[in-house]
Design goal:
- The chain has helices at 35-54, 74-87, 98-111, 140-153, 167-180, 197-206, 222-230, 250-256, 275-288, 294-313, 317-323; strands spanning 21-27, 63-69, 91-94, 115-117, 133-135, 158-163, 186-191, 211-215, 239-241, 265-267, 329-331, 334-336, 338-339, 347-349, 355-360, 363-372.
- It has 373 residues and is an alpha/beta fold.
- The protein has a seven-stranded mixed beta sheet, with helices on both faces.
- The chain is globular and about 65 Å long.
């Protein structure tokens, strides 16, 4: 396979007609989903679709997104996959939330519908190995072990996690504990079903923790916890972190102001963008009226891969699924190829680039790279 969506072409290269080739897009666009993440994901998907169509579409047929809002609801996502399958989409793409993507992947596998997951990282995206599902985002175990290396390198060995009940948060806690324990680290779990943000502060003092990780929902209770810790003089030297990426989006700064800075999180971008990445970054910035997050690049790369597969192998669902191991596409963040990775049940890009970054206290719109995986 060859190229990603090309830059806009002359009018003569536009799709010549015929019924559209449809891709279903699963995106969290309403609460309790992370709406900003959904907006960025959709912006990337839409930009790539526009460029595909400017470049002639899929064998002369226009490419079209059929968007469904998951609202971070697994049952709603599964129902959307059922509906999209009935509508005849060639494939399903997207989703940001891991637990939601897991439900979508299970339905796609059961229905024989190709699903290219853009952003969700949960290792066990399906219970059993499947040929129908592929993923762009790094598996949680890969990214969170890199984050654990950052913590150790920064001198943190007593790490508290403020966690809510969730398969995703529980998986993250387990990854951290299993990785840190043999290296002298301790993970202290704080159950946010029973603790208030002020009580979290007392627990941090009692356990002599030097770092607190926010394994909780956004904006609440994450914002309230940050305000409580920042306002407690006893905790002036405690570092807060958010590996799941809450500080990536502009709303974080709006809600927290100066308190939004210096909270490291995982970001899946290279240290410098390729010419393709830089061009897409400029187009996404114009579309979003703000700096694009890594999630927007994930959306663009998703369509880049699917468009290449559909051009090369046609729109038959089985042929698309059979094509995952033969993908070789230049994406915005590197060359995308899928393989079978131990412990991962889907076709996996190994790996998207991984950084630990935070917002600069001197300029909240600037990100500092603190560690590279």
């Amino acid at each position: 396979m060859n190229t990603p969506p090309s830059p806009p072409s002359p009018a003569g290269a536009e799709p010549t007609g015929g019924s559209a080739v449809q891709i279903g897009a699963l995106v969290p666009l309403t609460r309790p989903g992370w709406v900003e993440a959904g907006q960025h994901l959709l912006a990337g998907l839409e930009l790539a679709v526009r460029e595909v169509n400017d470049g002639g579409g899929i064998a002369g047929r226009p490419l079209e997104l059929v968007v469904r809002d998951t609202a971070a609801d697994p049952q709603r996502a599964a129902a959307a996959v059922d509906e999209l399958a009935r509508l005849g989409v060639a494939a399903v793409a997207g989703e940001y939330h891991s637990v939601v993507a897991r439900a979508a992947a299970a339905r796609a596998d059961a229905l024989g519908l190709p699903f290219l997951c853009s952003s969700a990282v949960l290792d066990a995206l399906t219970d059993q190995p499947t040929e129908w599902v592929a993923r762009l985002a790094p598996a949680q175990s890969h990214g969170w072990q890199i984050y654990a290396d950052f913590l150790l390198g920064a001198g943190h060995s007593r790490i508290a996690v403020a966690a809510q009940p969730s398969v995703y948060w529980a998986s993250g806690t387990r990854i951290l504990r299993d990785y840190l324990a043999p290296r002298g680290g301790t993970v202290i779990e704080l159950d946010m079903r029973t603790l208030t943000p002020m009580a979290v502060c007392d627990e941090l003092v009692d356990h002599r923790a030097t770092a607190l990780l926010l394994l909780v929902g956004h904006p609440e209770p994450a914002v309230s916890i940050v305000k409580a810790v920042r306002g407690d003089r006893r905790l002036a030297n405690v570092m807060m972190g958010a590996p799941a990426g809450q500080p990536e989006f502009a709303e974080w700064v709006t809600l927290l102001g100066d308190d939004s800075a210096a909270i490291p999180f995982l970001r899946y971008l290279p240290e410098s963008l390729s010419p393709l990445g830089a061009r897409v970054e400029a187009a996404l910035r114009e579309r979003l009226a703000e700096a694009p997050s890594f999630v927007a690049f994930e959306g663009y790369d998703t369509v880049a891969v699917l468009a290449d597969v559909l051009r090369t192998h046609g729109v038959d669902r089985a042929r698309t699924a059979e094509a995952w191991p033969r993908v070789a596409v230049e994406g915005t963040r590197g060359r995308i190829q899928f393989s079978r990775t131990p412990g991962i049940s889907v076709w996996q890009w190994t790996w998207a680039p991984v950084q630990v970054v935070d917002r600069d206290p001197a300029d909240l719109d600037r990100f500092r790279v603190r560690h590279v995986g």
